[in-house]
Structure formats: structure tokens, C-alpha cells
Design goal:
The chain folds into two domains: 138 residues, NAD(P)-binding Rossmann-like Domain (Rossmann fold, 3-Layer(aba) Sandwich), CATH 3.40.50; 131 residues, Rossmann fold. It is built from twelve helices and twelve strands. A six-stranded parallel β-sheet has the order 3-2-1-4-5-6, with helices on both faces. Strands 9-8-7-10-11-12 form a six-stranded parallel β-sheet. Strand 1, helix 1 and strand 2 form a beta-alpha-beta unit. Helix 1 crosses helix 12, helix 5 crosses helix 6 and helix 5 runs antiparallel to helix 12. It starts with 5 loop residues before the first strand and ends with a helix.
Length: 291
């Protein structure tokens, strides 16, 4: 148990609320700040002033920590909090955990905090997060398409963590899946488990074959030619981060349905995602104590 360890959870969506609850159930004394519209459990104390947050041992910040580089990601709060207020308040007594921090922010925090960890760089968390994202994408397909999975032809662009999980799930459920990836090794891995795999340029030629095209690549991948050649009823799903992979303007011009599926674990499985964050914090904090 960690009865002497105190945690400040600041900002974030419902994932961080569930993370706070999980930490409290494991003996941490947890306070929540800048998430007053969330369902704060009785085991978690509602924080008042921000200065009180920095009195605790561990500072847990959101995933992503910011969406614009200036303000803390705090969709469950009526108040906005500048990232600078966090960096100004941190001291050596604090161990800071955050998700998807920029190099600049990590450098600023590291100069003042006792320790800093970007938990989204920890491989076990990113794999679990990718699995939850793939599951969420599967749910979107089932919800938005009038077709059954096994009558669907689906293209998945990219075969990284999310693309590999998603393509595998779709194949197991009977969909006709094709992967389009720049990396030859990724294409070989897909083919090794019976998934058709092609270089990216083939998508322009074959776009008209698919009922749904899902992008997982965070760089331009699906251009206007592919979109224009697709079926009018084809559903495009953007699952990558900026700068994204689907030409959204081209979808508009060609009257194609584009679904922007961002931060899916926070929307489709927030409790599981929150517990994964909390488990990662617990494990990493123990490792840091040994150093």
C-alpha cells in the first residue's frame, strides 16, 4: 500500500478520473483539480486552489497534456489553466507524469521537478492504448456502416500498432481486409497472417473497391484522386494524429463521409484506458524510487 504517497490529478478527461479512482483504491491519497464536471468518486478529494496540488508527491497530467501547446487539456473544467502555471508551480518534491509532452515542455519540467515521465512513451501503455483504439474503430464501423462486416471490403492504411490490431480484428470477424503500407517489412508481416498488403500507390487504383477506408498514418496518405475514385457511399475514418492522413477538404469536395475518430479510448473505453494509465504510473513510480 502507498498510504504516505499523495497524488494530484490535474485536468484531463474521464480517463484521468478513473485513473484517480484506481490510484485511491491502491492506497494513494488522491486529489483532483480542474475536472470538477467529472464524476469524482468519494475516494478522491476535490482539490481547491492549484497551489495545493503542488504540495503532493505525484502530479498526474492528461493525455495529451495539451492540445494547443499553451493550455492544459481540461475538458471537464469550466476554468482554463495555462501550461505555464504548471511549470511555474512544479518543484523538486514533485514527480510529474504526463502524456504526449513536447520536447520543450519535458525540458522545462525536468529542470524543476524531482522526476518527469511521459507515460505515452512507455511501450506497454502504447500497445494497450493501440488495442483500445482499434476496438473503438471497430465499433465505429459497426455503428456507421449499413453493411455487415463479412460483406465489407475494408482498407487500412498503415500497419503500425493500431493498424495491425485493427486489420487483425477485422480479418477474424470475416471482413475482406487490405493493408496499404509504405514499409515493406510491415507488408510482409500483414501477408504472413493472411492479410493482403500493398504499397500506397495501389490505393489510388483500388479505392473504388472498398466500402470503408481507415487511416492510421499521421502524414498525408489518402489523396484527392483516391477519394474521388472511391464509391460515393464509402466511409472514410481518420484515426491518426496531426497532420493526419486523409485529405479532409477533398472528402468535402467529393461529398464523401469522413469520420474523425480522435482520442478513442477516452470516448469508447475510458475506464480501461484510465486504469492502464494508473497502472503505468504505479509501476514507473516504483522504478524511479529505486534509482
Amino acid at each position: 500500500m502507498n498510504k504516505n504517497k499523495t497524488v494530484s490529478v490535474i485536468g484531463g478527461d474521464s480517463r484521468l478520473i478513473y485513473a484517480a479512482e484506481f490510484l485511491a483504491s491502491h492506497g494513494y491519497k488522491v486529489s483532483a483539480f480542474y475536472n470538477e464536471h467529472g464524476k469524482i468518486p468519494e475516494s478522491v478529494k476535490k482539490g481547491n486552489e492549484l497551489k495545493d496540488a503542488f504540495e503532493n508527491d505525484i502530479i498526474l497530467l492528461p493525455l495529451p497534456v495539451t492540445k494547443n501547446g499553451k493550455m492544459l487539456n481540461s475538458p471537464l473544467s469550466s476554468s482554463e489553466l495555462q501550461i505555464k502555471e504548471i511549470t511555474d508551480g512544479i518543484s523538486e518534491r514533485n514527480t510529474v507524469f504526463l502524456g504526449m509532452g513536447s520536447t520543450s515542455l519535458l525540458k522545462q519540467l525536468s529542470a524543476k521537478a524531482g522526476a518527469v515521465c511521459d507515460y505515452f512513451t512507455i511501450e506497454s501503455l502504447t500497445y494497450k492504448n493501440a488495442l483500445l483504439t482499434a476496438e473503438g474503430l471497430l465499433g465505429i464501423i459497426l455503428e456507421r456502416s449499413p453493411l455487415s462486416l463479412f460483406s465489407m471490403k475494408i482498407a487500412v492504411t498503415g500497419y503500425g500498432r493500431i493498424g495491425a490490431f485493427l486489420a487483425g480484428m477485422l480479418k477474424m470477424l470475416g471482413a475482406d481486409v487490405s493493408v496499404f503500407a509504405r514499409n515493406e517489412i510491415q507488408r510482409i508481416k500483414a501477408e504472413a497472417i493472411g492479410i493482403k498488403a500493398f504499397a500506397p500507390h495501389h490505393l489510388e487504383e483500388d479505392a473504388q473497391l472498398f466500402d470503408c477506408i481507415i487511416n492510421t498514418v499521421p502524414s498525408p496518405f489518402i489523396n484527392e484522386k483516391a477519394i474521388r475514385c472511391s464509391k460515393p457511399e464509402c466511409i472514410f475514418i481518420e484515426a491518426a494524429s496531426q497532420p493526419y492522413g486523409i485529405d479532409s477538404d477533398a472528402c468535402t469536395r467529393n461529398e464523401r463521409t469522413l469520420i474523425k475518430a480522435f482520442s478513442l479510448p477516452g470516448k469508447t473505453s475510458p475506464k480501461t484506458a484510465g486504469i492502464i494509465i494508473a497502472e503505468t504510473v504505479i509501476k514507473k513510480e516504483k522504478e524511479l524510487m529505486k534509482e
